[in-house]
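_Full entry_
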Amino acid sequence: MTNVDVLAIGAHRDDVELSCGGTLVRAAMLGRRTAVIDLTAGELGTRGSADLRAKEASRAADVLGLSARENLGLPDAGVMNDPETRTLLAVAIRKFAPSIVIAPALSGRHPDHSVTAQLVRDACFIAGLRKVAPETPIHRPTKVVHCLAYREDNVKPTFVVDITDAFERKLEAVRCYSSQFDEAIQGGEVYPNGEPLYDIVRHQAAHYGSLIRCRYGEPFFTTETMRVDDIAALEVSTF
């Protein structure tokens, strides 16, 4: 068992690098243990192959500073939120026992992404039910947050993580997927605008950073209201 503080779960290898890679790097910089679960091998991807993407994901894991990375081997473009899959993912979540789980946005371009978002929420809940896979100790994460990177058509972010010090390593992790992104102008939830994908990643991170008055940021959404202990400590100037 590899207990971690933060567990990011994506439908495909490279999803977490694009959407929350900077947040994972930043967490590691702060001494937090992080891990990733990729649900599929990405075998239906137009470019590259599943074997090549596995090697790229391994390199990216080193760049991100992950404690562990696991692939559940679910069918690409066929992720389902059914009892069997929920149990499989719940057992994997129990193994890592995270406090925080990062999931995709609740809506997305790829059908696997939106299905994965609700699948993660449901699996986190049933991971705390003793009669589900009783051979493994129960664990229910404290909080599930959803990536909003590139989803300008979605809800307003609940919060943005300052990844200024982590951005270049995030981009290095994204670049590990050369089979997917070299010479590409879109990928994952990244809509094309004619620029190279790597430039879009930088510009989008700068946009999110501007929302909290820093250079680079990554946006997230929570269904629950965030708590503030000291109103006098609030950051981000109104003017």
User: Anything to note?
Assistant: Helices lie at 15-29, 50-64, 83-96, 111-126, 167-175, 178-181, 197-211. The chain has a mean pLDDT of 95.
